[in-house]
Structure formats: C-alpha cells, structure tokens
Amino acid sequence: MTSTTQTTDLTESAPTESALTAELRDNALAALERLGAQVPVPDADEQGLPVVSPLSGETLLTLPRAGAAEVDAAVGRAAEAFTTWRSVPAPVRGQVVKRLGELLTEHKADLAQLVTLEAGKITSEALGEVQEMIDICDFAVGLSRQVGGRTMPSERPGHRLMETWHPLGVVGVISAFNFPVAVWSWNTAVALVCGDAVVWKPSEKTLLSAIGSAALLDRALTEAGFPAGVSQLVLGEREAGEALVADPRVALVSATGSERMGAQVAPVVAARMGRLLLELGGNNAAIVAPSADLDLATRGIVFSAAGTAGQRCTTMRRLIVHESVVDDVVARLARAYEGLPVGDPRAEGTLVGPLVDAGARERMVASLEEAVADGGQVVAGGAVVDVPGAAGAAYVHPAIVRMPAQTDVVRRETFAPILYVLTYSTLDEAIALQNDVPQGLSSSIFTMDVREAETFLSEAGSDCGIANVNIGTSGAEIGGAFGGEKSTGGGRESGSDAWKQYMRRATNTVNYSTELPLAQGVNFG
Ligand code: NAD
Q: Domain for residue 443, yes or no?
C-alpha cells in the first residue's frame, strides 16, 4: 500500500461532533498506530473520502479519494511486482502468508476493534472475523505445498500428458462493508500462494480496517525482502471499483457485494474476457420440520437471523416451518427476540449492534411496511432503537414477520434483520419455497428425520451453494469452498479447490520417444 505520512492534526474535532465520535476517532487512530499503519491525508484542495462510524453516524476523519488514475497506477505497480513474485517458489510465498497469519494473531484485538468501529460488529463477531483471516492464512500455507496438477496416461507410447498450474497475474479484489477484512484475506492469502499480485478496493464504508490489514501484509512482504507492490490498496468508491473492473491487466476480478453491483460488473469483465468471481447477495432460508429439535433450532435461528444485525450475506431471512409446529416455533423465537440486547457493539453483553447507516434503517422500515401491506404480521421487534449518546446511529430491534405467502419483499434481500416466517405442509412444498427466490447462497434444514435431511441435500433439494443440516445458514468455516448460485453469482472462495480460480491451467504433452505418433491415430504423410 502507498501512504503519505500524516501531516495534519487528525485528532482535531469538528465543532458539532458528539463526544462518542471523538472517542471513536482516538480509538481508531491508536489501533492503527499499533498496527503500524500510516493514515494518508487528502490534499488541502481535495474532496476527501469520509470515514463514518456506524456507532455514531458521524465522520471520524477524511482520507484521500482514489479514482481511475490511482487505480491505473496501483494496477501498474502490481503488474510489475507480479513479474518477480510469480517466480518465487510457492512454499516460499507461503512463508509470507504464514507471517501475515502471525501478525494477525498478534494484532487480533487491534484489527477487531477497527472492524467494530467501522462495520458495527459486536466484539466477539469482530474477533471471529479476524480469526477467519488467521484460519485462511493457515489453510493457504498448507496449500502452498499442494497446488499442482495431475498426470494422465497418454495414448501415445513414450509420451507424458500432464497439467501444470501457473499464476494468473493481477487479481482485483472488491469487497463489501459487512466482512470488511475477511473477504480480502480469503482472496489474498490464496492468491499470494498461487503467485498472483492483488489490488484491493475495499468498501468505502470500511477504509480504516483495510488500511490496518494492508499494513500487516506490507510488513510481512518487506520483512521477507519481497516487493510491497504485490499488495496494493486503493481507497475509493464505485468509480475506483469500475476502473479496476475495466482494466485489462486485471486477470481476475473477485467482487463481493450486492446483486446490483454484480450485474454491473459481470458484463464489463465478460466483454474483455477476464475472469470473474462473484460473491453477491443471499436470501437464505431454513426449513423447520416436525421432528426438529426445537431448542437447538431456536438457538441456531436466532444467531443466523439476528446476529451481525442481519448484515451477513448468509443471514437467515426466511423461515419455512411445518404447519404442525409453526405456532410453537414463532412463540419461542418471539420470546428470544424480546430479550435481545441491542446497543453499543463494544459493550459486554450486546448481541445486536447498529445497522451500517441510516439508509439501511430506511430500507428495513420500508420493507416492513411493504410486508405488512402484503398481509404480513410483525410478531416481534421491528422498532427503531435510540441509544443514548448515539443520535446519528441506526439501531433497530430485529424483526420477525409472519407472511401469508412469499411475496416480492420476501424474495428480495433487505440487508437488515428481518426474518419472514412462511408455513408448509409437505417437504416438497418447503423445498420449492426455499428455492423460489432469485438468490442461491445458503440454506438449512432442522430435522431429526434422515430421509428429510438427505432429500434436502440431494439434487432434488436445496439449490444453494451452502446447504446445512441442524445448524443455521451463517457461520461457515474456511475449509469448504464458499459461495452461491443463481443471482448470488456462482463464485467459490476460500477453502477446498477454490484456489484453481486464481491460477491458469496448461496441458502439457512431452514426447520422450524417437517417434512422432499423432493422437487419434491420425496419419499425416
Ligand atoms: P455494495 O454492492 O454496495 O458494494 C460492494 C463493493 O462494490 C464496494 O466496494 C463498492 O464500492 C463496490 N461497487 C459498487 N458498485 C460497483 C461497480 N459498478 N463497479 C465496481 N465496484 C462497485 O455492497 P455492500 O452494501 O457493501 O455489501 C452488502 C452486500 O454484499 C449484500 O448484498 C451482501 O449479501 C453482499 N455480500 C455477499 C457476500 C458473499 O460472499 N456472497 C459476502 C459479503 C457481502
């Protein structure tokens, strides 16, 4: 990452800001200092990029805004660094990722603090996000001694037929606000061991945690004597993302965000025949069968539906409950929702922090109104919550709405904690409801009936990239490939063989005989 030394007094507070904002700024700058990160400052005549904390809804500080020119330069530096990095042996590249994992472990609390300040996650979830970064580093280090191809039998005597895998080039990573750092690490740890260089455009809503993460990787690279150009950070908005997506030097665009963003990005990358990895919105459902362990189901549902204030791509947004247990399930959930502590995500005991901004709150309120107009009945939560000292923040109480049918509002992803409850009588009906949305990210079934569980996991079951039994829809581990189908974009990141997307495959035939036999028995004179 390139950064200028801080030259102006960032701690000078604006006259109208709250005491909370001043405290958050101090905390953020102290965490960044511990992370060894320099905070770039905008030129005096530049309209900078504001860093707004959802905890206060106010601007903490202003950063330089990267546009197309800065993206062009960053891609150039990454492309240059790639020419060296690609020839470093993969296990040696793995050692850099190992060091990144060590630095993340050392600075887990510092980075988690930034995640809380910028994304509004409760401390435990923010720490979990950094742990996920550490886990993917571990995974990628192992991968650095495993990436490789197969050897297949050749039909020709004295010939060897094999596949070799090579680094792709520059990978452009565009990330969303709600996993501000983990998504970067999923891509970056794997891309680095694969031999790629990475240009990261984080969400404009989570810039400081990006600066902190990039600083740790810069440190790991420079300590090992490698060019820091391998890792580039561009702090910009949609325009910067568009420039990255359109750049023909970017071999793979890995973009995480809304379905709207994916629909804009996909045709641009396809038109230049680039590679694309899309991780877009979800509209995840759980089915609760008559045989379900309802205590366990209630716990799993509340975590998936209300956790992270409903701002996970895998958040449970729909619950499809058998008619024989629906009243019981709704009553249990309503009781659990009543006691959900909403408030400052840094405070001990808080389970629901703020929405990212007022716009998200407005969209939640509008969706609830639409659901009620469609015949829905709000059975828990849904109110806007005032947190003392945080007048500009957008706190809400997670909502449960019983719906008569899967109407348009239910079929859309509203990125807020609304759980729509639908009823079914046969498993086929439940699976059809579960699949009848544009998105295909995560799904689950709560059942003690092995036939139901296996049917749900079969080709006639869930059409999602993630299908679980007796756990909720959220909280995936890094070992499996992560991603979803349909309008979720079809990408797979993180574990399993997701690494293949970060490399190009060559098929090689080597003739070590003295003859030149042609394949398929062709005779050419
Ligand atoms: P968003 O789409 O508003 O922004 C995501 C990123 O895309 C940001 O960095 C933004 O600047 C950039 N961007 C926006 N338009 C662009 C364009 N035309 N070209 C290039 N870049 C562009 O999403 P958000 O509000 O930050 O995040 C929430 C959304 O992300 C939800 O829909 C959520 O489900 C989804 N998400 C999906 C996954 C997944 O793995 N499937 C993970 C996290 C979040």
A: yes
Is 429 annotated in the active site?
no
Cα(260) to ligand 1 centroid in Å equals 8
Catalytic pick among 129, 279, 452, 493 = 279
| 316 and 448 share one domain | yes
Domain end, chosen from 62, 82, 97, is at 62
Same domain, 176 and 318: no
In a domain, 478, yes or no: no
In a domain, 199, yes or no: yes
Residues 34, 83 share a domain: no
* Mean pLDDT, rounded, of the chain: 96
> Residue 273 burial (CB < 10 Å; 0-12/13-18/19+)?
exposed
Q: Which residue is closest in CA terms to ligand 1's atom 1?
A: 257
Look up the domain containing 136 and give its range. Answer: 66-280+489-507
User: What are the beta bridge partners of residue 49?
Assistant: 63
Q: Which residues of 296-332 are buried (b: 16+ CB within 10 A; e: fewer)?
A: ebbebbbbbbbbbbbbbbbbbbbbbbbeebbeebbeb
Instruction: Tell me: do 140 and 232 sit in the same domain.
Output: yes
pLDDT of residue 14: 52
DSSP lists the bridge partners of residue 440 as 485
Task: Give me the mean pLDDT over the 21-50 stretch.
Answer: 95
Residue 15 confidence (pLDDT): 58
**pLDDT (tens digit, 9 = 90+) per residue, 72-116?**
999 999 999 999 999 999 999 999 999 999 999 999 999 999 999
Residue nearest to atom 12 of ligand 1 (CA): 238
Q: Mark whether 23 and 126 lie in a shared domain.
A: no
Indicate whether 178 and 252 sit together in one domain: yes
- Say if residue 466's pLDDT is above 80: yes
Taking CB atoms and a 6 Å cutoff, what residues make up the pocket around ligand 1?
174-179, 201, 203-204, 237-238, 241-242, 245, 256-258, 261, 264-265, 279-282, 313, 413, 415, 441, 484, 488
Residues 201 and 97 in one domain: yes
The ligand 1 atom at the shortest distance from the C-alpha of residue 174 is 9
Catalytic residue, chosen from 118, 132, 259, 313, is 313
**Rounded CA separation 134/108 (Å):** 9
Residue 3: per-residue pLDDT: 40
- Per-residue pLDDT tens digits for 286-326: 999 999 999 999 999 999 999 999 999 999 999 999 999 99
